[in-house]
Amino acid sequence: MRRLWIGGALGVLVALSALVISLAAFGGSSTSSTSEEALQRQADLYAIDQLEKKFHKATSRKNIDLMMSLWAPNATFTAGGNIAVGKKQIRQFWLTESETFKPDNTWISGTIPYKVRTTVNGDRGTLYFECHYVDAKTGKVEKSTAADGDVARINEKWLITSMAGGSATLSR
Fold first, then answer.
1. CATH number at residue 152
2. The pLDDT of residue 81
3. pTM tops 0.70, yes or no
4. 3 belongs to a structural domain
5. Residue 69 DSSP one-character state
6. Is residue 27 part of a domain?
7. Is residue 68 part of a domain?
8. Which of 34, 50, 64, 133 has a CA-to-CA distance to 14 between 20 and 30 Å?
9. Which domain holds residue 120?
């Protein structure tokens, strides 16, 4: 009887071990996978949001290298009827056409968090934000604009692939 009981217990252990190995081979439970997907989504949304923060840091400090680090190599940027294609033309726009990079301006830019919207779907997403430019010397709001664009994960880094600048819409 004892041999039968030990044999049965060993059989149950072998079956459980096989089940655990099978689950590990197929990625574990769906709860773990769902949790990992939700965590990855939050990480992606955070990374996309950082593009907006770096954008405003770049314009406030007139840091063209930081600004250009946000763009994909073949990105497009449309503003004021101008279309810039590729990083070289986008860089030229910021340095020659943009009021925010003009040396005489002492503007600080930022946005109110509720005026930022991000989406993500796999390796693609969208980013919308408003820019409020305040003169550091006078405290006066000099300009308000909006940016609406597409982003993509390229070589494990989120970058702007296309963006259109325009007027900010007032909303409550």
1. 3.10.450.50
2. 87
3. yes
4. no
5. T
6. no
7. yes
8. 34
9. 37-167
